[in-house]
Amino acid sequence: MVETVSSLSSKFVIAIELSNPNASVGAHAVALFSLETECSKLIDSLPVPSSVRSADALMVLVETLCTKHQIVPSEIERVVVSVGPGGYTALRISSTTAKVLADTIGCLLIAVPSAAIASQSIESSQRPALIALASKNNQAHCTLLATDGSLEEVGVIDASKVETYAVHSIVGDAHLPETFVCRAAQLGIEIVPIELDARNVLKASVGIQPINPLELSPQYAREPDAVTQWRERSK
After folding, report:
1. What is the pTM of this model?
2. For 41-57, what is each residue's pLDDT tens digit?
């Protein structure tokens, strides 16, 4: 994690991570960073309160942080958001929030794959690793994290493909399919709890170019159920 500091600079970054709301208990959904000459520093961050729906929380959290630290919109240089793969509703809301903020403020917008954020908390001894997201129906969208920290998107796979990648660990949430857990046990692969936290988003964004807010699109692991059901009814 980035070290929290009390001194503020004149430019700030808002980071948003709500791609997989159930992936990391206690994770923070919104973080505020200051940009300085040689580094960035974490100013503050907040989780989604247990009493508030995730869908209703993001703008409230952003406003709370900015008000608390007396930051005005013109001081925000960029918005950085996790774009999946993940839950359909969570990605839609977080992406829309980031898009509206960037477009309204007129600041830069950077879209970061959720696997890149998860990779920030994976120890070198646990690499190479498969980062499993958006698990469903005994499948998961996986990204291979190499020993050198590079990422390669694998896509949606089932447990039978795990041994193909010769990994030391599988990084996933509580919804990781039992088939993956069993196969990992057979192969001697460690299961590591995934960490998706707004405090890791800025670091994960290094090297990613800003995009036009109108071009921001969430990364879904598979077609949303509502679309599939609608298509079936239309036949």
Report:
1. 0.90
2. 999 999 988 777 666 78
